[in-house]
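quick one before i forget lol
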Amino acid sequence: MKKLKKKQLIMAMMFRIVNLWQPLAGKVLDELTLRQYMLLMAMRSFPENSMNLSMLAETFGGTRQNVRQLLTSLAEKEYVRFTPPETDKRELRVSLTEKAFAFFRDHEEHDELFDPAFDGIGEKTLDAAIECLEQILKNIGGNTIDI
């Protein structure tokens, strides 16, 4: 297969995976959407009370408005809370709540959302996939993700 075809196939597969994963996430995550779940996972990598909307939008790869909508929904579900810092009341800090940490603990070892999709895939293959996707993110101006 030619290199261009391989690139097109990889991109098509990534879109297909996301489209197939969204309904599965709805069944497994109860009250969270896949996008809300992924934002929570990205938030785990930040020190407590250090996150603001701009940092999260950059890390998550979305617009500030899009991330704000996700965070507002997560706040309504009590997974995050907003607190204004003492220095600049216009900025909002975002922090995870105990409900979010309980969710992480409940899904730490066995994750119904990811385990079936990665069944039979070894560490070496996972590492190669991470390396490839990180390079794609870098090439298109995105940041790598720490979870």
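fyi The longest strand covers residues 80-83.
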